[in-house]
Amino acid sequence: MTYLIGASVPDEPAGQRFRALLNRPGILRMPGAHNGLAAHQARAAGFEALYLSGAAMSASMGLPDLGVITIEDVCFFIRQVARASGLPVLVDGDTGYGEALNVMHMVRCFEDAGAAAVHIEDQILPKKCGHLNDKRLASADDMAAKIAAAARARRHLHIIARTDAAASEGMDGAVARAEKYLAAGADAIFPEALTSAEMFREFARRVKAPLLANMTEFGRTPFFTADEFEAMGYRMVIWPVSSLRVAARAQRELYDVLRRDGSTQAMLPAMLTRAELYETIGYAEFESLDGSIAASVAP
Hints:
Layout: H1 14-22, E1 28-31, H2 36-44, E2 50-52, H3 54-60, H4 71-85, E3 89-92, H5 100-113, E4 117-121, H6 140-153, E5 158-163, H7 166-184, E6 188-191, H8 197-206, E7 212-214, H9 226-231, E8 236-239, H10 242-261, H11 274-281, H12 283-288
Helix pairs in contact: 2-4, 4-5, 5-6, 6-7
């Protein structure tokens, strides 16, 4: 089904639909979807909300995750993921692209593009992936001012404050920051790069708010399942770059085979067929919206 136009377009604002999912029992599972095609596939797999990672967007553009992409770059991705899936999308807002006024501009742009929620982190630019070393933090007061600005600007967007403080300020510092961000208007907290089950449990015991867990591969967090995060006190979990990692490895293999063989024939078993791809993106449904287009038959 296409969610581009007509009766399939959701009526409620995306942020409101996101909150409704959070209000249900159980942990909200949000896989990363780095483009519209991935969004289609995630919805078809049964997910009800998606995540748009700054690292995945940057890598899709051939860039490192150092805060170099712009609000307009991100809106391009939001529009395709939200439009393709029709699902609420949580978006990585990095550091907010500046100070209070920039954060307010980001919030309105993201809402207009179709985002349901955003998380803003307490690093300073140039920022780093939360699982890398030597991150530099903004002051808690400066970050709280950004959260307050985001809350003032939003119409429906769900605002999540991410803190990277555990690595440099310990659990006490991360908890103190989280409490300050909640007081400034954050709806939920994202403690980044916790390194053990006990750290996740302690944070959940001490911070009385909806919490987001990040289950990224090859990082500082051990592997936990969604159910395990829920048992530790978390309401949301993301797998931010998984789809892009799998797709990128498959593409690398394709190019190696094509360079070696001068043919893609050996890769055919790994490919979606033309018919499967058309079904995924709703090709026939789009054609049916315009009576001047003859129905296509895949060879």
